[in-house]
Amino acid sequence: MDNSVRLHEQHAVQGVTFDEFVVSNGKGCELHVLTYGAAIHRLFIPLAEGSPRQILMQAEISGYFQQDAFMGATVGRYANRIRNGIFEIDGERFQLDRNNGKHCLHGGPRGFDKQVWDSALTDVDGRQALQLSLLSPDGDQGFPGNCNVQAVFFWNRQDDLEIRMTAAVDQPCPVALTSHGYFNLNGVASDSREHFLQLSADRYLPVDATGAPSNGLCNVEGTSFDFRKLGKITDRLNLDGAVSENGYDHGFLLQKSVPGMTQPAAILISPDKRLGMELYSNQPAIQFYTARFYAGQPAPHGKRYSAYDALCLEPGCLADTPNRSEFGDCIVRPGQTYENRMILRFRPGSHQ
Question: Which CATH number fits domain 56-348: 2.70.98.10, 3.30.1490.110, 2.60.120.10, 3.20.20.150?
Answer without folding.
Answer: 2.70.98.10
